[in-house]
Specification:
It is built from eleven helices and 18 strands. The chain has helices at 26-41, 43-53, 60-63, 71-77, 171-197, 203-213, 255-258, 292-301, 335-347, 368-378, 419-424; strands spanning 2-5, 8-11, 87-92, 112-117, 123-125, 128-131, 137-139, 145-147, 157-164, 222-229, 234-238, 262-263, 271-277, 282-286, 318-323, 352-355, 386-390, 411-413. The longest helix is centred in the middle third of the chain and has 27 residues, at 171-197. The radius of gyration is 27 Å and the shape is globular.
Length: 430
Protein backbone atom coordinates (compact mmCIF):
# COMPACT_ATOMS: atom_id res chain seq x y z
CA UNK A 1 0.00 0.00 0.00
CA UNK A 2 1.00 3.63 -0.33
CA UNK A 3 0.69 6.53 2.06
CA UNK A 4 1.86 10.11 2.23
CA UNK A 5 3.73 11.29 5.34
CA UNK A 6 4.72 14.97 5.47
CA UNK A 7 4.58 15.16 1.69
CA UNK A 8 6.69 12.02 1.20
CA UNK A 9 5.16 9.02 -0.55
CA UNK A 10 6.04 5.81 1.27
CA UNK A 11 5.45 2.33 -0.15
CA UNK A 12 5.19 -0.74 2.03
CA UNK A 13 4.96 -4.36 0.88
CA UNK A 14 3.65 -7.07 3.21
CA UNK A 15 3.84 -10.84 2.78
CA UNK A 16 1.17 -13.00 4.39
CA UNK A 17 1.11 -16.76 4.70
CA UNK A 18 -2.23 -18.04 5.99
CA UNK A 19 -1.99 -20.51 8.86
CA UNK A 20 -5.12 -22.40 9.86
CA UNK A 21 -4.93 -23.55 13.45
CA UNK A 22 -7.18 -26.52 12.73
CA UNK A 23 -4.81 -27.86 10.09
CA UNK A 24 -2.41 -29.52 12.54
CA UNK A 25 -0.85 -31.78 9.92
CA UNK A 26 0.11 -28.89 7.66
CA UNK A 27 1.88 -26.77 10.29
CA UNK A 28 5.13 -28.79 10.47
CA UNK A 29 5.36 -28.84 6.68
CA UNK A 30 4.79 -25.09 6.45
CA UNK A 31 7.42 -24.47 9.12
CA UNK A 32 9.96 -26.62 7.26
CA UNK A 33 9.16 -24.89 3.96
CA UNK A 34 9.55 -21.48 5.59
CA UNK A 35 12.91 -22.44 7.11
CA UNK A 36 14.09 -23.79 3.74
CA UNK A 37 13.11 -20.58 1.94
CA UNK A 38 14.82 -18.55 4.61
CA UNK A 39 18.02 -20.57 4.32
CA UNK A 40 17.96 -20.31 0.51
CA UNK A 41 17.67 -16.52 0.54
CA UNK A 42 20.51 -16.14 3.04
CA UNK A 43 23.16 -18.02 1.07
CA UNK A 44 24.56 -14.95 -0.69
CA UNK A 45 24.84 -12.85 2.45
CA UNK A 46 26.47 -15.48 4.65
CA UNK A 47 28.57 -17.52 2.25
CA UNK A 48 31.54 -15.17 2.05
CA UNK A 49 32.21 -14.66 5.73
CA UNK A 50 31.55 -18.34 6.43
CA UNK A 51 34.17 -19.32 3.85
CA UNK A 52 36.66 -16.69 5.03
CA UNK A 53 36.29 -17.48 8.70
CA UNK A 54 36.03 -21.24 8.50
CA UNK A 55 32.32 -21.49 9.25
CA UNK A 56 32.41 -21.15 13.03
CA UNK A 57 34.75 -18.18 13.40
CA UNK A 58 33.83 -14.64 14.36
CA UNK A 59 31.01 -13.34 12.08
CA UNK A 60 32.60 -10.12 10.86
CA UNK A 61 30.00 -9.41 8.20
CA UNK A 62 27.27 -9.79 10.78
CA UNK A 63 28.74 -6.94 12.82
CA UNK A 64 29.13 -4.48 9.94
CA UNK A 65 27.01 -5.91 7.07
CA UNK A 66 28.91 -4.29 4.21
CA UNK A 67 28.10 -7.16 1.89
CA UNK A 68 24.34 -6.93 2.39
CA UNK A 69 24.46 -3.17 1.76
CA UNK A 70 26.83 -3.67 -1.23
CA UNK A 71 29.43 -1.38 0.33
CA UNK A 72 32.05 -4.14 0.17
CA UNK A 73 31.39 -4.68 -3.52
CA UNK A 74 31.72 -0.96 -4.23
CA UNK A 75 35.04 -0.75 -2.38
CA UNK A 76 36.41 -3.79 -4.21
CA UNK A 77 35.52 -2.26 -7.58
CA UNK A 78 36.72 1.26 -6.68
CA UNK A 79 39.76 0.81 -4.44
CA UNK A 80 40.57 4.50 -4.15
CA UNK A 81 36.99 5.58 -3.43
CA UNK A 82 37.12 4.71 0.26
CA UNK A 83 36.44 8.20 1.59
CA UNK A 84 39.98 9.54 1.50
CA UNK A 85 40.04 13.31 1.15
CA UNK A 86 36.57 13.59 2.72
CA UNK A 87 35.90 15.04 6.18
CA UNK A 88 32.76 13.89 8.00
CA UNK A 89 31.38 15.65 11.06
CA UNK A 90 29.70 13.24 13.47
CA UNK A 91 26.94 15.03 15.41
CA UNK A 92 26.37 12.60 18.27
CA UNK A 93 27.44 11.76 21.83
CA UNK A 94 31.11 12.29 21.04
CA UNK A 95 33.73 9.80 19.88
CA UNK A 96 36.11 7.86 22.14
CA UNK A 97 39.56 8.96 21.01
CA UNK A 98 41.20 5.74 22.18
CA UNK A 99 39.17 3.43 19.95
CA UNK A 100 41.49 1.10 18.06
CA UNK A 101 39.95 1.46 14.60
CA UNK A 102 39.69 5.24 14.82
CA UNK A 103 43.37 6.17 14.89
CA UNK A 104 44.44 6.55 11.25
CA UNK A 105 42.86 6.52 7.79
CA UNK A 106 43.62 4.07 5.01
CA UNK A 107 46.18 6.56 3.64
CA UNK A 108 47.76 6.96 7.11
CA UNK A 109 46.34 10.34 8.07
CA UNK A 110 44.94 11.12 11.54
CA UNK A 111 41.41 9.72 11.70
CA UNK A 112 39.86 12.26 14.09
CA UNK A 113 41.09 15.73 13.19
CA UNK A 114 39.00 17.84 15.59
CA UNK A 115 36.81 17.42 18.67
CA UNK A 116 34.22 19.93 19.90
CA UNK A 117 32.03 19.69 23.01
CA UNK A 118 28.97 21.53 21.73
CA UNK A 119 27.01 20.77 24.91
CA UNK A 120 29.16 22.94 27.16
CA UNK A 121 29.08 20.23 29.84
CA UNK A 122 32.86 20.18 30.07
CA UNK A 123 33.32 23.96 30.29
CA UNK A 124 35.59 25.20 33.08
CA UNK A 125 35.92 28.96 33.77
CA UNK A 126 39.61 29.80 34.18
CA UNK A 127 39.54 33.51 34.96
CA UNK A 128 41.42 33.35 38.29
CA UNK A 129 45.12 34.16 37.76
CA UNK A 130 47.92 33.13 40.13
CA UNK A 131 51.70 33.30 39.99
CA UNK A 132 53.81 30.22 40.60
CA UNK A 133 55.17 30.00 44.14
CA UNK A 134 58.21 28.49 45.76
CA UNK A 135 59.37 25.00 44.74
CA UNK A 136 57.31 25.33 41.56
CA UNK A 137 54.02 24.99 43.42
CA UNK A 138 50.72 26.86 43.33
CA UNK A 139 47.49 26.71 45.33
CA UNK A 140 44.57 25.36 43.31
CA UNK A 141 40.92 26.36 43.64
CA UNK A 142 40.30 23.15 45.58
CA UNK A 143 42.72 24.37 48.25
CA UNK A 144 45.31 21.74 47.38
CA UNK A 145 48.94 22.71 46.87
CA UNK A 146 49.66 21.74 43.28
CA UNK A 147 53.10 20.54 42.22
CA UNK A 148 53.65 21.82 38.69
CA UNK A 149 55.70 20.24 35.96
CA UNK A 150 58.62 21.75 34.10
CA UNK A 151 56.43 23.31 31.43
CA UNK A 152 57.44 26.25 29.29
CA UNK A 153 55.64 29.28 30.72
CA UNK A 154 57.48 32.57 30.08
CA UNK A 155 55.15 34.69 32.24
CA UNK A 156 54.91 32.33 35.24
CA UNK A 157 51.19 33.12 35.36
CA UNK A 158 48.60 30.35 35.55
CA UNK A 159 44.83 30.49 35.16
CA UNK A 160 43.03 28.32 37.68
CA UNK A 161 39.88 26.21 37.31
CA UNK A 162 38.00 23.46 39.13
CA UNK A 163 35.70 20.80 37.63
CA UNK A 164 33.57 18.21 39.41
CA UNK A 165 33.50 14.82 37.72
CA UNK A 166 29.82 14.18 38.36
CA UNK A 167 28.91 17.41 36.56
CA UNK A 168 29.89 16.05 33.15
CA UNK A 169 30.91 12.38 33.29
CA UNK A 170 28.66 9.84 31.47
CA UNK A 171 25.78 8.60 33.70
CA UNK A 172 26.82 4.93 33.63
CA UNK A 173 30.37 5.83 34.64
CA UNK A 174 29.07 8.00 37.50
CA UNK A 175 27.03 5.04 38.75
CA UNK A 176 30.07 2.77 38.65
CA UNK A 177 32.23 5.36 40.44
CA UNK A 178 29.65 5.90 43.17
CA UNK A 179 29.40 2.18 43.84
CA UNK A 180 33.16 1.85 44.14
CA UNK A 181 33.57 4.96 46.27
CA UNK A 182 30.75 3.83 48.61
CA UNK A 183 32.46 0.50 49.19
CA UNK A 184 35.73 2.28 49.98
CA UNK A 185 33.92 4.68 52.30
CA UNK A 186 32.08 1.89 54.14
CA UNK A 187 35.33 0.00 54.62
CA UNK A 188 37.04 3.08 56.10
CA UNK A 189 34.07 3.80 58.38
CA UNK A 190 34.02 0.21 59.61
CA UNK A 191 37.64 0.60 60.66
CA UNK A 192 36.82 3.83 62.51
CA UNK A 193 33.89 2.22 64.34
CA UNK A 194 36.10 -0.70 65.27
CA UNK A 195 38.66 1.68 66.79
CA UNK A 196 35.95 3.49 68.74
CA UNK A 197 34.83 0.25 70.34
CA UNK A 198 38.38 -0.88 71.07
CA UNK A 199 39.88 -0.12 74.45
CA UNK A 200 37.72 2.50 76.17
CA UNK A 201 34.46 2.43 74.17
CA UNK A 202 33.22 5.82 73.03
CA UNK A 203 29.50 5.17 72.66
CA UNK A 204 28.62 8.84 72.12
CA UNK A 205 31.02 9.22 69.21
CA UNK A 206 29.84 5.93 67.72
CA UNK A 207 26.19 7.04 67.88
CA UNK A 208 27.01 10.40 66.32
CA UNK A 209 28.94 8.74 63.53
CA UNK A 210 26.09 6.32 62.85
CA UNK A 211 23.66 9.25 62.64
CA UNK A 212 25.91 11.12 60.23
CA UNK A 213 26.11 8.06 57.99
CA UNK A 214 22.38 8.37 57.34
CA UNK A 215 23.09 11.69 55.61
CA UNK A 216 25.78 10.25 53.34
CA UNK A 217 26.11 11.94 49.96
CA UNK A 218 28.92 11.62 47.46
CA UNK A 219 29.70 14.82 45.53
CA UNK A 220 32.37 12.98 43.54
CA UNK A 221 35.96 13.98 42.84
CA UNK A 222 36.89 17.53 41.88
CA UNK A 223 39.78 18.13 39.50
CA UNK A 224 42.06 21.16 39.68
CA UNK A 225 42.85 22.65 36.27
CA UNK A 226 45.61 25.04 35.27
CA UNK A 227 45.83 26.87 31.95
CA UNK A 228 48.92 28.72 30.72
CA UNK A 229 50.49 30.07 27.54
CA UNK A 230 53.78 28.47 26.54
CA UNK A 231 54.73 31.29 24.19
CA UNK A 232 53.08 29.67 21.18
CA UNK A 233 49.75 28.15 22.23
CA UNK A 234 47.49 27.87 25.25
CA UNK A 235 47.85 24.63 27.21
CA UNK A 236 45.86 22.98 29.99
CA UNK A 237 46.79 20.47 32.68
CA UNK A 238 44.24 18.56 34.77
CA UNK A 239 44.99 16.92 38.13
CA UNK A 240 43.22 13.70 37.16
CA UNK A 241 44.62 11.79 40.16
CA UNK A 242 43.28 14.35 42.61
CA UNK A 243 46.44 14.31 44.74
CA UNK A 244 47.91 17.67 43.70
CA UNK A 245 50.91 16.15 41.92
CA UNK A 246 50.64 17.38 38.33
CA UNK A 247 54.26 16.84 37.31
CA UNK A 248 53.46 13.81 35.16
CA UNK A 249 50.13 15.07 33.82
CA UNK A 250 50.16 15.96 30.10
CA UNK A 251 49.97 19.60 29.03
CA UNK A 252 47.42 19.52 26.20
CA UNK A 253 46.46 22.17 23.68
CA UNK A 254 43.44 22.40 21.35
CA UNK A 255 42.91 18.92 19.93
CA UNK A 256 42.83 20.02 16.30
CA UNK A 257 46.35 21.44 16.61
CA UNK A 258 48.20 18.34 17.83
CA UNK A 259 45.62 15.49 17.97
CA UNK A 260 46.70 14.65 21.54
CA UNK A 261 44.50 13.13 24.26
CA UNK A 262 44.92 11.54 27.70
CA UNK A 263 43.07 9.25 30.13
CA UNK A 264 41.70 10.25 33.53
CA UNK A 265 42.80 7.10 35.36
CA UNK A 266 42.94 3.32 35.15
CA UNK A 267 39.54 2.87 36.78
CA UNK A 268 37.41 5.21 34.70
CA UNK A 269 39.40 4.56 31.49
CA UNK A 270 37.81 7.78 30.27
CA UNK A 271 39.74 9.47 27.47
CA UNK A 272 39.67 13.26 27.18
CA UNK A 273 41.08 16.12 25.16
CA UNK A 274 40.80 19.87 25.55
CA UNK A 275 40.00 23.08 23.74
CA UNK A 276 40.83 26.51 25.17
CA UNK A 277 38.73 29.55 24.28
CA UNK A 278 38.41 33.26 25.01
CA UNK A 279 42.12 33.98 25.34
CA UNK A 280 42.59 31.39 28.07
CA UNK A 281 39.49 32.30 30.10
CA UNK A 282 37.54 29.13 29.28
CA UNK A 283 38.74 25.52 29.25
CA UNK A 284 36.60 22.88 27.53
CA UNK A 285 37.24 19.27 28.62
CA UNK A 286 35.94 17.04 25.82
CA UNK A 287 34.71 13.55 26.73
CA UNK A 288 31.96 11.34 25.25
CA UNK A 289 28.56 11.40 26.94
CA UNK A 290 27.82 7.85 25.76
CA UNK A 291 28.96 5.14 23.35
CA UNK A 292 26.58 5.87 20.47
CA UNK A 293 28.87 8.37 18.76
CA UNK A 294 31.78 5.93 18.75
CA UNK A 295 29.47 3.23 17.35
CA UNK A 296 28.36 5.53 14.52
CA UNK A 297 31.93 6.67 13.79
CA UNK A 298 33.05 3.05 13.49
CA UNK A 299 30.34 2.22 10.97
CA UNK A 300 31.24 5.35 9.03
CA UNK A 301 35.00 5.23 8.84
CA UNK A 302 36.74 2.68 11.06
CA UNK A 303 40.07 1.50 9.67
CA UNK A 304 41.79 -1.65 10.96
CA UNK A 305 45.01 -2.14 8.96
CA UNK A 306 45.43 -5.72 10.19
CA UNK A 307 41.71 -6.65 10.13
CA UNK A 308 40.17 -4.96 7.07
CA UNK A 309 37.00 -7.02 7.47
CA UNK A 310 36.19 -4.81 10.47
CA UNK A 311 36.55 -1.56 8.51
CA UNK A 312 33.71 0.90 8.21
CA UNK A 313 32.21 1.81 4.86
CA UNK A 314 34.69 4.68 4.29
CA UNK A 315 37.99 3.79 6.01
CA UNK A 316 39.78 6.63 4.24
CA UNK A 317 37.54 9.40 5.58
CA UNK A 318 38.57 11.73 8.40
CA UNK A 319 36.21 12.63 11.22
CA UNK A 320 35.27 15.59 13.38
CA UNK A 321 33.58 14.69 16.66
CA UNK A 322 30.85 17.18 17.61
CA UNK A 323 29.20 16.20 20.89
CA UNK A 324 25.59 17.36 20.73
CA UNK A 325 24.27 14.85 23.30
CA UNK A 326 24.56 16.34 26.78
CA UNK A 327 25.31 13.90 29.63
CA UNK A 328 23.38 16.15 32.01
CA UNK A 329 20.19 15.49 30.01
CA UNK A 330 20.74 11.77 29.40
CA UNK A 331 22.62 12.41 26.14
CA UNK A 332 19.77 14.40 24.59
CA UNK A 333 20.50 17.09 22.04
CA UNK A 334 19.17 20.64 22.07
CA UNK A 335 18.83 23.53 19.65
CA UNK A 336 21.88 25.18 21.21
CA UNK A 337 24.13 22.12 20.90
CA UNK A 338 23.06 21.51 17.29
CA UNK A 339 23.64 25.15 16.38
CA UNK A 340 27.12 25.05 17.88
CA UNK A 341 27.85 21.85 15.96
CA UNK A 342 26.72 23.47 12.71
CA UNK A 343 29.11 26.36 13.33
CA UNK A 344 31.95 23.91 14.05
CA UNK A 345 31.22 21.97 10.85
CA UNK A 346 31.49 25.17 8.83
CA UNK A 347 34.64 26.25 10.70
CA UNK A 348 36.48 23.00 9.92
CA UNK A 349 35.15 22.87 6.34
CA UNK A 350 33.46 19.50 6.58
CA UNK A 351 32.18 17.80 3.44
CA UNK A 352 29.47 15.72 5.10
CA UNK A 353 27.51 15.90 8.35
CA UNK A 354 26.07 12.76 9.93
CA UNK A 355 23.36 13.27 12.56
CA UNK A 356 21.88 10.14 14.13
CA UNK A 357 19.41 12.11 16.24
CA UNK A 358 15.87 13.27 15.52
CA UNK A 359 12.67 14.41 17.19
CA UNK A 360 8.95 14.63 16.29
CA UNK A 361 8.05 18.04 14.90
CA UNK A 362 5.03 19.98 13.65
CA UNK A 363 6.84 22.42 11.37
CA UNK A 364 10.08 20.95 10.09
CA UNK A 365 11.85 23.87 8.43
CA UNK A 366 11.75 26.65 11.00
CA UNK A 367 13.97 27.73 13.87
CA UNK A 368 17.55 28.76 14.41
CA UNK A 369 19.01 25.33 13.60
CA UNK A 370 17.19 24.98 10.30
CA UNK A 371 18.25 28.49 9.37
CA UNK A 372 21.90 27.53 9.92
CA UNK A 373 21.50 24.38 7.84
CA UNK A 374 20.02 26.29 4.94
CA UNK A 375 22.09 29.47 4.94
CA UNK A 376 25.45 28.36 6.30
CA UNK A 377 25.80 24.69 5.38
CA UNK A 378 23.83 23.00 2.60
CA UNK A 379 23.53 26.10 0.42
CA UNK A 380 26.81 27.79 1.34
CA UNK A 381 28.16 29.43 -1.87
CA UNK A 382 31.82 28.52 -1.30
CA UNK A 383 31.66 25.24 0.65
CA UNK A 384 28.29 23.47 0.63
CA UNK A 385 27.96 20.51 3.02
CA UNK A 386 25.98 17.34 2.41
CA UNK A 387 23.73 16.63 5.41
CA UNK A 388 22.86 12.99 6.18
CA UNK A 389 20.49 12.15 9.02
CA UNK A 390 18.49 9.26 10.40
CA UNK A 391 14.86 8.81 9.49
CA UNK A 392 14.14 7.96 13.12
CA UNK A 393 12.83 5.02 15.12
CA UNK A 394 9.19 6.08 15.30
CA UNK A 395 6.15 5.09 13.27
CA UNK A 396 4.15 3.98 11.48
CA UNK A 397 1.74 6.95 11.68
CA UNK A 398 2.29 10.71 11.83
CA UNK A 399 5.80 11.86 12.78
CA UNK A 400 7.23 8.59 11.49
CA UNK A 401 10.07 10.70 10.10
CA UNK A 402 11.21 13.33 12.58
CA UNK A 403 13.25 16.49 12.22
CA UNK A 404 15.55 17.12 10.52
CA UNK A 405 14.99 13.90 8.55
CA UNK A 406 11.75 15.17 7.04
CA UNK A 407 13.46 18.24 5.59
CA UNK A 408 13.65 18.05 1.80
CA UNK A 409 17.30 19.17 1.59
CA UNK A 410 18.87 16.37 3.65
CA UNK A 411 19.48 12.69 2.94
CA UNK A 412 17.35 10.67 5.36
CA UNK A 413 18.49 7.11 6.02
CA UNK A 414 16.11 4.43 7.26
CA UNK A 415 17.00 1.14 8.91
CA UNK A 416 17.71 -1.97 6.86
CA UNK A 417 17.69 -5.36 8.58
CA UNK A 418 19.43 -8.01 6.47
CA UNK A 419 19.36 -11.67 7.36
CA UNK A 420 23.01 -11.75 8.44
CA UNK A 421 22.38 -8.98 10.97
CA UNK A 422 19.41 -10.89 12.43
CA UNK A 423 21.56 -13.99 12.89
CA UNK A 424 24.86 -12.66 14.17
CA UNK A 425 24.17 -9.34 15.88
CA UNK A 426 20.59 -9.52 17.12
CA UNK A 427 20.28 -13.30 17.58
CA UNK A 428 16.76 -13.21 16.18
CA UNK A 429 17.22 -16.28 13.98
CA UNK A 430 18.94 -19.54 14.87
Amino acid sequence: YQRRVHGTLSECLFFFEPVYMSDHQALPQRRKRSEKNQADTSVDTTQTYSNECGGNAFPNDGIVPKMATQAAKFLSEHAGADGRGVVVAVFDTGVDLGTQGLQVTSDNKPKIVAVVDCSGAGDVPTTVERQVGTNNTIVGLSGRTLKLGNWENPTGCYRMGLKRAFDFFPPLLIKRMKERRKKQFDHAQANVLHELHEGAPNEVAAEQLAELLKQYQDPGPAYDCVVFHDGSVWRAVIDTQGNGDMRDCPALTDYHKEQQYATFDNFTLLNYCVNIYDDGNLLSICIPSGNHGTHVAGILAAHYPDQPELNGVAPGAQLISCKVGDARTDSMESGVTLSRAAIAAAQFKCDIINLSFGEPVDTSQTGRYMHLLQKELTFHPQHPITFVTSAGNAGPLLTTIGAPGVWSDVISVGAYLPHVLCVDTLSLIH
